[in-house]
Amino acid sequence: xxxxxxxxxxxxxxxxxxxxxxxxxxxxxxxxxxxxxxxxxxxxxxxxxxxxxxxxxxxxxxxxxxxxxx
Length: 70
Description:
By secondary structure, the chain is mainly alpha-helical. 49% of the residues lie in helices and 0% in strands. The protein has helices at residues 4-11, 16-23, 27-34, 42-51. Helix 2 (16-23) packs across helix 3.
C-alpha cells in the first residue's frame, strides 16, 4: 500500500529533499515514513499535515488486526 504522504508529495511535484528540508528532518526520515518503516512524531505529523492539506493525522496510523487465539 502506497503511503498517503508519498501520494501527496508526488501530486504536489515535490522532492523528498524539499519536503525534508521544509519539515526540518532528514531525507531518510521522509523516505522511511513513506515506506512504512518509521512512524513520525506527533509534531512531524502536524508539520506534514500543514504542508499537505489533503493529509490528516489518521493517514499516519496503521491498524493491525489481531487474530484470536484458539
